[in-house]
């Protein structure tokens, strides 16, 4: 069991400041008059003590208290430019940032939970004992900001006033990290302490890029102290390792939901978007997918964008499931973003009018960014994550260096997007009626299916399988990706699973508001369905049809075909949706290939999950019951129809 405030708070011990008086004395010594005046606008003892200790530990040359004004944002952006962390591009408001070529994703091998001696953590994660972590942090972070400017930012992860928001400090010597925080999170300088009082806690993140040299990268670390909800990150720059407001704090929010949420809260790796239905109806969808599997594209395919990466959910007094986005911007993968699949994002990336931080793409000699899969004619030379680049360049291993890294990203405010919904700022969140789970699955599950009930829905999430993507350094192969949230689940998987069953099956949700739960799969290939080649059977834009169908299904507007894995769409419902939503013919023959059940593949998946979960401790029996029920049904179908069962055969029942 996770114990809060257990063991020493490392930054407090290394900083040595225990009281508000000591904190104030340090501020007087270390801050110039302007920033002293700013910090005097704060009075919460814990907040002041935490900031003072970060200063005492990191020993910066200057402390900048960021109040989130336009002037402060301009200062931070300019600091990033002066330091060389970013450079300006041809388009007004656009900058480029590079991470070292060895740090183009999350460094999971150097990411640890700080644990108390008797504490269990996820079998998928690394842990370091508190005393050892203190030694490492002392050795690496004491004085790490010598001569540098420390920016202290006060944010709220979610709208001010929302039930599931969490206040968080981002303290960093990287102006790029701070600049990114300003675009991706809500600066809450004026509301911070009020929100800390209301919510009873805050998260703290302390980061320094150190000297930002490749030789220091083996010593880079990302530490998460669950007991004190404080992160430490050093010698790295990639936002997934450094801007711990994002995944570092998401991990704490998962803990909070699982261990304190009482079946009424979740913290998910999900987009949130609204789909227009008939007669002006808007239906809100939240969906999980592993990093690099189309969450941003799916969110942008909706009519009303709220978020593309994270969702905080709760059951409210009106018996509905509400969701908010802890972020207010996107840190989106740009590979394969093009006019065809992502017209609205492309519009913002290629036209003036918004602030964009690009990372790890190619910049040509005219200061224009280029990336793989953008549908444009690529230049033959420029500068990218690897340094100077020209077509045909190979790395030290003899591999061709792509024009942009597959995890190259753009950072942009949600409000810049044409489909941005102002519901993104609503403290009451959006009423969520559809939950989706997806992964890169080339050969097994159909494009869309709806769980029979909430228990089956939780099992869809538990059973996500996905090919590895570039967001984690060194990841390869096909992996289980439970709820697409596994990299961010600090505690035991069984505890997390129980929280899922408790939440979605909760009697506190009204039956007519209980979300439908679905699987989505955009990655079926021709070769897996009787054709040849690894080309996808569908197109990116088809997602609008799948979401459109789910929108109708959530309101009971369409019937569906009952199968052991859940309900699949009828052809006659999909065909008009393809026509009206994406102006595309949808041949029956394609439908049959996409929605025939390949029983042996699904059974193999079922076995894989049953075996893998069988090895975990304390997995709720309900998971095995659901998998067993599905297996029996699938075997029965196979006995009657053979290994490939078409929708028409399924309709025969
Ligand atoms: C992801 O990889 O899931 C991201 C980017 O959203 S980050 O976690 O920040 O690396
Ligand atoms: Mn993510």
UniProtKB/TrEMBL annotation:
GO cellular component, one term: cytosol
Chain positions recorded as Mn(2+) binding sites: 247, 269, 309
Residues annotated as catalytic: 293
Cellular compartment(s): Cytoplasm
Pathway(s) this gene product operates in, as recorded in its UniProt entry: Carbohydrate biosynthesis; gluconeogenesis
Co-factor remark: Binds 1 Mn(2+) ion per subunit.
Binding site for substrate: 106, 238-240, 291, 407-409
Domain Phosphoenolpyruvate carboxykinase C-terminal P-loop: 266-631
Catalysed conversion reaction: oxaloacetate + GTP = phosphoenolpyruvate + GDP + CO2
Keyword NADP carried by entry: no
A GO MF term: kinase activity
Matching PANTHER family: PHOSPHOENOLPYRUVATE CARBOXYKINASE, PHOSPHOENOLPYRUVATE CARBOXYKINASE [GTP]-RELATED
Protein name as it appears in the record: Phosphoenolpyruvate carboxykinase [GTP]
Gene behind the chain: pckG
